[in-house]
Description:
Elements: H1 2-52, H2 56-86, H3 90-139, H4 142-145, H5 148-164, H6 167-195, H7 205-209, H8 212-263, H9 266-274, H10 278-330, H11 337-369, H12 371-378, E1 400-407, E2 417-423, E3 429-433, H13 440-447, E4 455-460, E5 463-464, H14 470-474, E6 477-480, H15 491-496, H16 503-512, H17 516-520, H18 542-556, E7 560-564, H19 572-580, H20 582-585, E8 590-594, E9 606-611, E10 614-619, H21 621-627, H22 630-648
Parallel strand pairs: 3-8, 3-9, 6-7, 7-8
Antiparallel strand pairs: 1-2, 1-4, 4-5, 9-10
Amino acid sequence: MDIENKKKQNKEGLDNKRQNNKRRETAVSKKLREAVKYHKTGLELMKIVHKVDSSAIPLRIINTVLQVTAAYLNLYLTARFIDTLLAGRFAEGFFRGCVTVLTGLILGAAAQLVEKAYAKSSQRCSLAFMVMMREKAASLDYETMEQPQVSEKIFTSERIASMYGGLGSIVTYYQGLLTGLLEIGTAAGMIGVLCFSRPRTKGSLLAFAARPAVSVALVLLFLALIMVIRAAEASGMIKNTKKYLQDHAGMEMQLNYLLARVMMNLQAAKVIRMYDMQGMLMDNMAKWNEKSSGFYENMCDVETRGVLNANLTNGFFTVFSYLFVAVKVLTGAITIGAFTQYTGALMKLAGGFQGVTWHNTQIKRANDYMTDFLELMKMENKHATGTIPVEKRLDGEYEIEFKDVSFRYPGSEEMILKHVNCKLTMKNKLALVGENGAGKTTFIKLLCRLYEPTEGVITLNGIDIRKYREEEYRELFGVVFQDFKLFSFPLWQNIVTAYERDDTRLQDCLVRAGAAQFVEGLPQGTDTLLFKDREGGVDVSGGEAQKLALARALYKDAPFVVLDEPTAALDPISEAEVYAGFHEMVKDKTSIYISHRMSSCRFCDDIVVFRDGEIVERGSHETLLERQGHYAGMWHAQAKYYVTENKGC
Length: 649
């Protein structure tokens, strides 16, 4: 029994030992994986830099080699120069002095030229960083782009990059890492020669300290001590910086909102003055500014402590270096001239280790705040990528049908559209009516493939629209959304957009949209710059802006024209003009019209009534009134309101 118990205990002991070893191996491998992971991210960013500017990385490598070569060559030549003078060979010393100075000038000038070339490259990388994010954002489908976390990633990436450096900083940090490694390698060779140089004197404590074995042990001991101190500092810096960066992104977004979107917004300026909101806004500004200032104070404290600790560590190692090399000189192991060479080499070795640790920390920190940028660049569209080309038809006869379509917005459980079945009648004027939130605008977004159905399909000529090339499918629609946007560009660019400019066609669209008279009165006609964001620009009223948006939809000359509340910002006279020309405006096209004004529906051939995400009625104006259903109720309610309003006037 005793033998069996011992065997069992031995087996348990071995199992425990294996488990402990496995845990240690797991912990080590985890740290290695983490180190490899952030360098993998860093190299991924370096690939992007190389793609943006192929000269950036080679220029930094050349600059690093020149700097390290110049530093160590100067140490070596200076040592030889001093030894020559001490030996009394002044002519040779003069020659060595000239060579030392000339070599330093040549290598320094070469490094400066490379640095100047890189400064231009760094600027290109910074600009490319901003452009890449905007291009990526423009390439994302609307459903993805509309998500708050996407715009947050763009803002955070841009803001933090402007504060701490973008793609260019990654190259700089890797250059620093490379510099440190080269310094360590070169200095280690020189210090190896120093350590193994044998003292000429014997029997003293200094001679014992100058022995090769003791010298190697002392150098390794001090270097290990420095590395432990620097690693602890780096770990604390990364931990604190990551926390500060996460907290600071939200502060910056709030400050940016107040400064750019509130304080500098002309529309907001009217509300601010009418409701005496200056004090409230400044209180909010002060609150977020105080939080941001606290962030900077904490960051400065972290950086200051890091610099102070680094200086103390360097000072400690400097004292050791001078004492250690002095012992070698006093024991006759090296010459007096070599004193500067080897003290310099020891300082370079310590600096190399410090540089590797510091730049490695910066790379890890940079990867933390560049994560949003990489995630944005890797973000894929939610929409299926179709491959079928859309048939180009001169007669504009396209058949579009909603088949049992239901839809809910991402992150919501509420169905905005419920089992919608609707076939569009070609060349007709279709009105979509219903209360706010009934699903009308969502119907249009699905029709234009800005979103995709949660359930069911939308077909074009009997084929699921997701199978068509997305850009070609959207060419079928000219849309004026309720929240349309004009840009601070010349007026003609706002209308012509990506298409070729045709002044005759441009003028025709302005006339049909009722904007011709307004444009003729502008200082430079269609070349007039819109809005006063830039010098020479003119502001446009809501009604005139809406007419220009109508002209833009007409200029596209798409077979489907979609108008979402096209007269919402127009005065009654302008509205009457638009309706009077409505038939001419959309002739030979299929038009879809969304409105809350029931009177506008009389101009349409077909009316679809939405209620709570469902189509509850469909027919002509007269037919729907006769049914006395939901449409008739809305019609009579508005008619009664207008009659009452007119009597009041």
